[in-house]
Amino acid sequence: MINKVIFSNELAKNCSIVLGVYSDGTLSKSAQKINEYLGGAIERNLRKLNFTKKKLFDICSFLSTGKDYNHVIIVDLGDPQKEFSKFELEKLGAAIYSGAKELDSDIAIAIDAADLHFTCDCASSFVGFGALLKSWFFDKYKSRKDEKIKLKNLVMLTSDTKTSERCFEELRKISDGIFLTRQVVSEPSNVIYPESLARIALEELSPLGVEVEILNGDQMKHLGMNALLAVGQGSEHKPRLAILRWNGADAEKPLVAFVGKGVTFDSGGISLKPEENMHEMRYDMAGSGTVLGLLKAVALNKLPVNVVGVMPMVENMPSGSAQRPGDIVKSMSGQTIEVLSTDAEGRMVLADALWYTQERFDPIVMIDLATLTGAVVVALGHEFAGMFSNCDELAEQIFKSSIATGEKVWRMPMSEHFDDGINSDLADVQNIAKSHIRGGSITAAQFLRRFVNNKKWAHLDIAGVETSSNNLFICSAGATGFGVHLLYDFLQKNYTS
Ligand code: BES
Ligand code: MN
Ligand code: ZN
């Protein structure tokens, strides 16, 4: 993993160097300088390697002929006129990391804001951020570590080191939040269960000035959270509810609430899931993991906002004490729920957590994140999270942050049509729809809506994006940390003044 990122307005020596070339074959300004310094060696090598017909972010490398550099790494910067967005700069950094990680431990990236037609001198900060995000991996349980990866330190070329350093400092703290999310999501369910995840929240966040409160099963019982508790009642691991408060602004300023599904393992319960891919349900706490990482990023950067994060945590297991299909429970809101599938557990957990959050904190908006439905993966695949909201303005704000950060969301509809599907014959609501109703993700969202009490609310179904099986641009295969950067940006844009 990358360990140090240094900003300099001079070119580093005695390392490998990354240079930018546009798709038409012309060298970027910084590359021209190095080319002159090396007596035209860059151009000669490019001709020899026939590095043509390439596309944005393609990479090639060769051994340097001069003594100052070990390897020269060339990256395609696309159209010479191209203006990069922040997210594209991150992708560039990630591409460079992938192309260079096995070549040298120290690499200088000689591509600055001018080469990228970026308006601000902090362009290299975003490139560094992308490289850093890409460099994270989870090899805790590998006895033999990957020795091919050498890259540790980056030197970034910039004309304004102060601005770049300040900008990168914030991004690095965001990455610390993202890495915490990736780590807890990656851990298996024999390591991460409600009690252990609550302890991590306490240990990680209290030192940063976040107030962490942890409720146990008895306290939740007392509050009437029977829907949440029913999901966990089959497990040896007892449930926990963690409440994380960051008071970064005056008390009269609005409070923004985040609630994350924290099912530390979802076997399906008595409605047991099929064997194939059941292990993936270790990731079913990714909503809670994202709330945790978000609060870390917010607290590290001392963001001037008031935030509450709620992590309802249970394990969904089949056993003699597990809830049964057909059970009816009374949720904290007073609404009764008929449990027709014990595998539609996330919405039961959120029903109580959302109700609790709006009752206790009266937030100005409430956003939940949940690996809620397989159906959202069918609808949107692995690039977009499904966004559901009862408030157009809120949806628009989240959408804007999704464009800015590259953590993409796509708004899905909600409609009363789906209420018919979940009106129960025996109780107020049933947890899965009658069989003729399709659109499982909308049904789930419509279910949640009954527990938000007309608060401005958005629900992000992150089942498809919380992990990735292939190497996404800014993430290696595995947990992505999706949502931390998105919601950090959302808070910063809309609630810091
Ligand atoms: N945690 C799952 C959803 C899920 C599926 C997340 C695949 C990630 C990948 C959720 O609790 C669940 O089991 N949902 C059911 C709902 C159904 C019973 C109505 C589903 O999607 O099949
Ligand atoms: Mn389930
Ligand atoms: Zn689940």
- Radius of gyration from the alpha-carbon trace, in angstroms: 25 Å
What structural class do you assign from the helix and strand content? alpha/beta
Helix content, binned percent = 25-40%
The tally of structural domains comes to 2
Polypeptide structure, described:
The chain is α/β, with parallel strands linked by helices and 497 residues long. It folds into two domains: 4-159, 3-Layer(aba) Sandwich (Leucine Aminopeptidase, subunit E, domain 1), CATH 3.40.220; 174-495, Zn peptidases (Aminopeptidase, 3-Layer(aba) Sandwich), CATH 3.40.630.10. The chain has helices at 29-37, 41-49, 86-100, 123-135, 161-186, 194-205, 217-223, 226-232, 286-300, 346-361, 375-380, 392-405, 417-422, 440-449, 484-495, and strands spanning 4-8, 15-21, 59-63, 69-76, 106-109, 153-157, 211-215, 240-247, 255-260, 262-266, 306-316, 328-330, 336-338, 365-370, 385-389, 409-411, 429-430, 457-461, 467-468, 478-479. Strands 7, 8, 9, 10, 11, 14, 15, 16 and 18 form a nine-stranded mixed β-sheet that branches. It has a six-stranded mixed β-sheet with strand order 1-6-5-2-4-3. Helix 9 links the parallel strand 10 (262-266) and strand 11. Helix 5 packs antiparallel against helix 9 (286-300) and helix 9 crosses helix 15. It is elongated. Bound molecules: ligand BES, manganese (II) ion and zinc ion (ZN). Residues 263, 266, 284, 345-346 line the site of zinc ion.
